[in-house]
Amino acid sequence: MVAIDPANVRTAAAHLRGRAEIASELDVDLRRAGLLSELDTSAMLAACAEIDEELGILARILVSRADEAEGFFLPGNNWRLTSVLLGSLLDDHGAIAEMTAPLALHTLMEQGVPAAIDGSNPTTTRDPVDSLVFTVAGLEALAVDPRSSPELAAAATFLATNPSIVEVTAAWEGTGATLPSHGIDEIPLRDIAAFLERNDVLRSAVGPNGIRVDDIHAEIDDAALVAAGIDPDRFNELAMPRNAEELLIAAVDHGTFNHNPTVARSFVQTLPIDYLDGQSIDIRQTDSAAIERLYDAATLDLGDSPEDFVTRALVVASLPESNSGIRNELITSNYAEIAAWQNELLNDSTLATDPNYRGNNWFHLGTSASDSVSPVIEGSLRVLGDEIWPGFGTPDAVDQDVADGNQAIYHHFMTSLASLWRTGSTKSPRLDTAFALLDEAANTTDTAEAQHLVAESTVLFSIEEQIVVDPYLQLEGLGIVDHVGTSVLTFLTNAGDSRSAAEVMTDEGELSVQADGVDLIPPIVIGEPVAAPAHDNNYLDPELLDARLPDEFDWSQTQANDWTSLAQRMPVIKDVTILTLTEPALPAMVANRARGNLDRD
Amino acid sequence: MPTAAAFDAAARSFDRAAAELTQLLTHTPGHLGPDTLVGGMLTLVAELTVGTAQVTASTTAVALTRRADTCRARADACRAFAAELEQYHRAVSQFDSATRNYDPTDPLALPPVRPNRPRPPANYIEV
Predict the structure, then answer these.
(1) Searching chain A, which residue's CA lies closest to the CA of residue B40?
(2) Which of A16, A165, A356, A573 is most buried by a 10 A CB count?
(3) CA distances for A396 relative to A284, A379, A393, B85, angstroms
């Protein structure tokens, strides 16, 4: 692409004209010297004439292009924006490069983007700035055309999927200029330019030197904008949001950083995470499609190597969530990938029904647990519905808390995994031990010992998980705590079929898990003590296992009277964890959630 | 034919032109930096044009410097020939005087010898 600063280009053109003039004036001196000396100076005269002519032509071309670029300028616009667009269209599209700019613009007006790219059929004399429009189909073609610059492709993608571009139009209206008339599904070039300008301001605003996210709801003052190199007046003219949360959402929606995978990943890393920052972006304010585009952009260049998997996992860990559960789906599928990978290391092709099966791993459980909270995030399951359990907080707050908790566990485990991969240590002694036990289990020939090692490892993972999720179990009262707890209890029985947690919850505030009309676990009344079913993995020696586990909980407990208490909850979690070890439905369910098989539509 | 003065004047002109061309595009690339123009065919065209002009100016400046050197050498040759010619004219005057005083009956007197006119070392010599 080409970018032009019209003012500087004019200065350069004036300089070139001056140089050409000097070369031209040498003609007189050289002719006189030739006459005096009777030496042949024709070659030198020709050379000076050539310099004069070439520099003069270049100067005229530059002035012409400066005129064209200025024709697309918006008031106060950053010069690179529209000229980048102009350059993308006019300069880098093969045949277009052979056309004059006005000719190409006229082609765009008459024939739309495809014809313009082909450089065919140039006619019309209308003012291109006011009348140039793109159809949605044209933008879609432009978005995927390999000849489009990344920025133009990103802009076209957004515009094609947001043909009304309300906020962009509003931004243009803020300039005080008159909007060109355009039809349905037609987007004026002015709007595209306004979109690009808005994106440029967003980049500055949320870039490394831009806004701070210490408090994403605090209003950004003019001093912060000036520090980021943004004119506050222009910021207001563009109707830009005044707090970090809305700016970040706008940047996600606009694909502001989607034009380059590295840039997209850097941007994702700046997004607030409740687990780390104590605040997160409201899942009701985000757009699933925009988040998915950001994810795609940030992982575009990643392959199947372990390093790339880790990078992809860290992208997911920092993505915002939407109330369609897009991040939850990615988390679930990534858990599933790890579960399948570890299962292969541990069990190769041995099935869970085989006595020699060494056990499911914690990531099987993570997959199921993450999957079980999706209806809460999506809002299809109102755990704290007012009619059933009043007084436990608003459903929306619960959605957010569950989404944040889901992210917290995943973020902690993925950053630990990344650290293990890159440095050999997770930075968590408990997880270091858990991974080492898995490794030991995979390498021992003693099946019984391997089964105990897997059980011990999985309980350690569960302890770590429960510690991370603990603050989220304190939120919004007992209802959500009960839901999470009972979801954990039920996952093993509904994992293998299509039943969701919602289907196993009764409308009486009682939870039952049945198969063929038979209770698999005793019915649980919400708010009542929760008891774990005694584990039936009789290949494990309970005493031997308990002896191996950390001495920080009373593992003999079988009931939790208070689910918010880690000490009471953990023994039950341990029993549930042990129960999952040979659940035969889990590997199949996990395989269905693995990346690539996940239905993200 | 050019005189030494003409060659000197021409040499000065050639030198001046060479200096102009040497300096002609020194600052031009700075005017076309990233603050002015980035990427695309236009940048390539600008860089190619300026680069070609720089090479042309540079080679032409070298050629002009050679022309100036030639002019100075020829001016020197003109001046050397002029000196030889002046010496010749003095010899001719001496010869004329000796001829007038020569007595052919004096058995001891030698006839004066006419000096040879020097030949210009090159066809461009003008005095």
Answers:
(1) A2
(2) A16
(3) 8, 8, 9, 114
